[in-house]
TrEMBL record:
Protein source organism: Thalassolituus marinus
Name of the protein described by the UniProt record: GTPase Der
Residues binding GTP 1, per UniProt: 9-16, 56-60, 118-121
Domain EngA-type G: 3-166, 189-362
Pfam families hit by this protein: KH_dom-like (PF14714), MMR_HSR1 (PF01926)
CDD domains per UniProt: EngA1, EngA2
Ranges of biased composition (kind: Basic and acidic residues): 444-472
Purpose: GTPase that plays an essential role in the late steps of ribosome biogenesis.
Binding residues for GTP 2: 195-202, 242-246, 307-310
Cross-referenced SUPFAM superfamilies: P-loop containing nucleoside triphosphate hydrolases
Keywords for this protein: GTP-binding, Nucleotide-binding, Repeat, Ribosome biogenesis
The UniProt record lists the keyword Repeat: yes
NCBIfam families listed in its UniProt record: GTPase_EngA, small_GTP
Phylogenetic placement of the source organism: Bacteria, Pseudomonadati, Pseudomonadota, Gammaproteobacteria, Oceanospirillales
């Protein structure tokens, strides 16, 4: 599961600033799903290749009344939802009553909280941090969110302290090749059905599962965890990530709805293919686009289902189609299906796209195939001249899957203009018939795959030469010493 970090603290301590830092460290997509969650903001960030979810809270002032009380309610909810809490204080302000009150609440919540001392700027930590020990929250960790100082180190530090995923943990215990713990083994294509409330997710999921196909293991998961439901269709195995607790709940309580954003974000990260459900009756609204940006940011394969297509007039259908063309014109890779979850129309085609997207996102291609495509692409369209020189692209290899990452190596490869990079990406997509998943292209400077090795050899031979010289010198010094002693002894005639 992707860990959730909540930012908690008095107003003005720098929560928003830190939120922006954490979420912008990745492609600068910050999503705020309004309405559903009042003022809470949810975002995704990454350290190295480890993703996490961040919740920014409204702030707890310590004098809860009216609006403040409502905000505080939000913070308390966020504290419950999170794995990690960053309790932020302001080193310029020192400790206030509000800080004391929050510390008390955190202690009672039993959650693991880190005391983050913001606005350290150029100050001496030894002097300004001392007083914050009084809060009894352990050692204050200094950062300057506004200047991006200490932020990455902070997240790396807390992520390292997190308990590992069960699966990872079992593997570690049992050794690399051991089979994964039976119950944790997820079968086939992992599907996440996401969308804002009322678009028809539950109806679609029930349609997918159909009572007789369902093998439910109803583990007593926590309220925050989604249930994984394995099933089969036409001999293909799937696992549905049930974010809405469809298999468990009787009706939608407010609490369940609040949790669902985190579950949705986690499901997006954890799935192979994401089905984004839209409602043809309401058209596309801001929340749909926010949800879409989360999916795009995650790099997951995507299929779009425009639901409730039954009983629409032709005029309405035309209007929805025009709107989709206009608002999704940037979305080139995802298949779209007009379906009725209620009647089951279009669901078969949806599966075709899911299977196809999964295949594309998981396929592994040989280096020589990728290199040949690169050679063809560059010989039909040469890379444009950059700084009076023409970049020379040498070879390509696959750097990962889900999403496929294609790494192009060459002289000045990292300086290619964007439109040429896009041309290469489109060529790969066309030739390899990649459908339903984004492709990530990486461009690395270096014209020879073995240049790193060469450097090593050069380095080591230099090392050897140095060592020889040092020994020679040592020997010389020794000889000199011996000679000196000899001379001395000659001077002392008996
Ligand atoms: N000197 C300094 N100022 C900072 C730093 N981080 C944030 N600030 C400033 O502190 C002020 C408050 O920052 P916000 O991020 O809005 O604080 P907040 O906790 O989200 O405040 P609320 O939204 O009211 O809860 C802003 O003027 C920031 O520019 C820092 O590292 N150093
Ligand atoms: N006409 C029509 N109505 C549908 C269709 N799919 C779902 N609905 C109706 O839309 C309403 C919402 O459907 P749900 O499946 O509960 O929606 P949801 O997205 O799971 O909602 P949350 O659980 O609140 O997130 C229900 O009244 C459904 O009967 C469809 O294909 N056609």
């Amino acid at each position: 599961m992707v860990p959730v970090i909540a930012l908690v603290g008095r107003p003005n301590v720098g929560k928003s600033t830190l939120f922006n830092r954490l979420t912008k460290s990745r492609d600068a997509l910050v999503a705020e799903i309004a309405g559903l969650t009042r003022d809470r903001k949810f975002g995704e960030g990454k350290v190295g290749d480890r993703p996490f979810i961040v919740i920014d809270t409204g702030g707890i002032s310590g004098e809860e009344e009216g609006i403040d009380a409502a905000m505080a309610g939000q913070s308390y909810q966020a504290i419950q939802d999170a794995d990690i809490i960053f309790f932020m204080v302001d080193v310029n302000a020192g400790i206030t009553n509000g800080d004391r009150m929050i510390a008390e609440h955190l202690r009672r919540s039993g959650k693991s909280a880190y005391l983050v001392a913001n606005k350290i700027d150029g100050k001496n930590p030894e002097i300004v941090l001392g007083e914050f020990f009084e809060l009894g929250m352990g050692e204050p960790l200094p950062i300057a969110a506004a200047h991006n100082r200490g932020v990455t180190a902070l997240v790396e530090y807390v992520m390292d302290e997190l308990p590992k995923d069960d699966e990872e943990y079992f593997r570690e215990l049992a050794g690399e090749d051991a089979p994964v713990h039976e119950e944790l083994d997820v079968k086939g294509i992992k599907i996440a059905v996401v969308g804002r409330p009322n678009v028809g997710k539950s109806t679609l999921v029930n349609r997918f599962l159909g009572e007789d196909r369902v093998v439910v293991y109803d583990e007593a998961g926590t309220t925050r965890d989604s249930i994984y439901i394995p099933y089969e269709r036409h001999g293909q195995e799937y696992t549905l990530i049930d974010t809405a607790g469809i298999r468990r709940r009787k009706n939608i309580s407010e609490a369940a709805e609040k949790f669902s954003i985190i579950k949705t974000l986690q499901a997006i990260q954890d799935c192979h293919v994401c089905i984004l459900v839209l409602d043809a009756r309401t058209g596309i609204v801001e929340q749909d686009l926010h949800m879409l940006s989360f999916v795009l940011n995650s790099g997951r394969a995507l299929v779009i289902a425009i639901n409730k297509w039954d009983g629409m007039t032709q005029d309405d259908k035309d209007r929805v189609k025009t709107e989709i063309d206009r608002r999704f014109d940037f979305l080139t890779f995802a298949d779209m299906h007009f379906i009725s979850a209620l009647h089951g129309t279009g669901v078969g085609h949806l599966y075709d796209s899911v299977d196809q997207a999964y295949q594309s996102s998981m396929t592994k291609w040989q280096t020589n195939l990728l290199t040949r495509i690169l050679e063809d692409a560059t010989s039909s369209h040469q890379p444009p001249v950059v700084r009076n020189r023409r970049p020379k692209l040498r070879y390509a290899h696959q750097g990962g899957s889900n999403p496929p990452i294609i790494v192009v190596h060459g002289n000045m490869a990292n300086e290619l203009p964007e439109d040429y990079k896009r041309y290469l990406a489109n060529t790969y997509r066309r030739v390899l018939e990649i459908k339903g998943t984004p492709i990530r292209m990486e461009f690395r400077q270096g014209d020879n795959p073995f240049s790193e090795k060469k450097k090593d050899i050069r380095h080591s031979s230099k090392k050897r030469a140095d060592a020889v010289e040092r020994t020679t010198n040592k020997r010389k010094i020794k000889q000199d010493k011996a000679r000196k002693q000899l001379r001395k002894s000659y001077k002392k005639p008996t």
